[in-house]
Amino acid sequence: MAVEPLSQKEIEDRLAELPGWSHDGDRLARSYRLTSHFAATALVIHIAQVQEELDHHSDLTLGYHTVSLTVNTHSVGGAVTDLDFQLARRVEELAPGHGAH
Fold it and tell me: Which positions ≥6 away from 47 have C-beta within 8 Å?
């Protein structure tokens, strides 16, 4: 089954189920604030493992007590697809307390 870009309406509807996530240009985006730099680093490792399982990768940024990620699907010209939402949902499951800010 081919991966298809989602419409703006589909993106908005799915974002309603993922508080904290936004549609930033041509990407989904989310930042998490954690209790320590170590916790943030651990979250990055767990996200990387999920990305390998899904064979779908985001841009991850590790900061002081923070993790930020943005994702889109390069194989369809950098549009947002179901793959991006699959990854977002999996990351939400990993995030301590489901999140942060």
Answer: 58, 60, 67, 69, 91, 94
